[in-house]
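Q: Can I see a sequence and its folded structure?
A: Here is a first one.
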Amino acid sequence: MITLLACLLVLSGAFVQYTIGFGLAVIAAPLLFQLSPVYVPGPMVVVALVVASLSAIEYRHSISFGGLKAAIIGRIPGSVAGGLLLLWADLASLSFWLGLSVIIAVAISLFPIRIAPTPRRMAIAGFISGFMGTSSSIGGPPMALLLQHQQASYLRANLSAFFVASCFMSLIVQTSVGFMSLTHLSATLPLIPAALLGAFLGRRYGKRFPQQWIRTFSLSLCAISGGSAMLSYFLMS
């Protein structure tokens, strides 16, 4: 039953991400953690890698590797810092941090401010993304904030390309600190077909739904799931 629920969460998150450009980890990670801590962050990062790879291939002609260089460089020390947090934190602290990451993601997605993606800002966003992505699997919001006003195909292409590189970095760090083992891998395998199906359904049918409706529903769900993860911290403490 837990595996089935986990697959449904991943399918829903992948569907939303392919429909509006974000949502996989933000929607699924806190609820997956409530089902079983084994799903976050390692397995969730593998699923994110699969979905990001599909999107990067689809929008490959719009990828600007030069524009991503600063962010990827900044992501390296951020990933290491995220790995150190995993070593230090207990399950209750990780639940709180996961919920806080989701609340931050929701707040950033509502940010109306236009911030130019300069190399320095990209490096800072890359560092924060590395820290959040490695420790909680939710590393997209800082980069999305900088790129949110770019053309849609450019946004999807470069966020996806960045996520592919980011996921590999996070997995290397998570493996070294024990958060991506054979146990985590076995928990990941059933989630991959669910992610692929969600991506397929989102690509084929997602645009038929009102985008603003899906966005509002997704952000509301994220806020609820993030709040529940933070509440778990106080219940576990």
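Q: Show me another, different protein.
A: A second, unrelated one:
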Amino acid sequence: MNDLPWPLKALVLTVFVVLYYKYAKSALFALCRRAAHLLPFGRRWDASERGSVLELAAAGASHVLVVAVLVLVTGIDLTRFAAGFDRPGLIALGAAIGVGEVALGSLLCRVLIEGVQAAGRRRVGSVAGGARGGARSGARGEMRGARTAPATAGGTMDGAVESGERMRQWLGLSRGGWIRHHLKTMEVVSLPLALALTATQVGSEEVVFRGLVLSWLREAGPVLAIGISCLLFTVMQVFLMSSWRAAMFPVVGAIVMGVTHSVLFWHFPVLIPLVVAHVTFFLFAVA
């Protein structure tokens, strides 16, 4: 399939990403949840915990299979991107990149949440203001003028408390969907096993969206190849999330990480620091 023009390659990759990351993984996770009630696990794990561990293990194994299938489809030799295992500097660089991406992603998420909340408050205030109009405005205006300072202070405090509560609710939503099986697994299994399962899954995503997608679309040029890779990587985050609010955190993180990693890989085609950055980002994000 290497003789295909790049638009058809992009179409093949898009269909593959949707079929696997949305439909195949959904069916796989449903199977894992059913198996959690049937397999003889220890009593110290409840059904939700068993299901989460199975989901994460199945996701990692299926991601490795996806890499193998895409290697056969694209004909790309991944060994040429595998240098760096013996270079601690590259690993440290990857960890630093991951920490920086977490900081930037968190800042952008905070700005977006504050913006959405501010827009909501403006809409509520506009509706309430219209309903209060009429003949009462003069008298109420005098009463408000006499109590300007206390009302403002109380309103600011109430607004800050309400904003903080909404932020906590939003953060709670973000820990659902496909992120749940990472969180549950880290709670119930040993840390080395949880790290190994997480690294297998997110490392495979780097191989897919940077090592394979970018390399296969290289003839399209940097703008299109990076744009398609980032778009597919970002859209994939939305699948299996409960709502757009829950998906906002992984989507913002995917945009930050996708652009950064794609640009780096385009100029320096080495996967090891990108895998380390991805794992670091993920661990900080779900911790």
